Amino acid sequence: MELCYRCGEIFGRLHLAICKGFNRCCFNCKRIGHLAKTCRNAKQCSVYVNSIRVIQRKSEKKKERDQRRWMEFTSRKATLAELPFSVISEPEFRAMEFDSAVPTHVKTRHILVADKVNILNEKIQDLISKNEDLVNEIKTLNGKNFSLTERLRDIESQQNEEETLRKTISDLRNVQSCQQKQTNRKSAVVKSEKRREKFRRKIIRSVSRV
């Protein structure tokens, strides 16, 4: 944005009619047409020493200070010029009616901003409704999760009972197999004793015949 070299404010369409430095006298150079804050000439002061007029000039440090302040002022004005509605200054707003003198692009921008606000409000309401649906769904899932947890506990208890029954059955089978082995051993011993008795009787019979 362009700044006015007379007063330092933003130069707009109606700025010349309300410019503060148009007919003002500068305190630095004593010229008419700009203010002292926008003056780029060295400050002059009338001092009479021995009836001789001496022009006081600024030192280099003061010039650097003034230059730095001027750069900060212009940069701040340029930053403010990038903001919305910076084309129109406050006195211009006061001097004209909004409906008749505001530029068309300002009205269009105002309408676009209002539309964006409405769209954002609708999105916010949509997000609120979706959030409520998600909360209800989470509550339902929590209830289902609780029932599933109970079911898993029942299944785990059943599995533990089945494991216990399997161990009991395996122990009974081991006991039964041990008993069967003992029975088989006893029967084998009895059979061997019977065979020995028969063999002994045969020997006795053969000896008696001789």
From TrEMBL:
Coiled coil recorded as keyword: yes
Keywords attached to this entry: Coiled coil, Metal-binding, Zinc, Zinc-finger
Which residue numbers delimit the CCHC-type domain?
Answer: 26-41
- GO MF assignments: nucleic acid binding; zinc ion binding
Domain of life (superkingdom): Eukaryota
Q: Which PROSITE patterns match?
A: ZF_CCHC
Coiled-coil region(s) at which residues? Answer: 117-175
This chain's protein is named CCHC-type domain-containing protein
According to its UniProt entry, this protein's organism is: Pinctada imbricata
The top of its lineage is:
Eukaryota, Metazoa, Spiralia, Lophotrochozoa, Mollusca
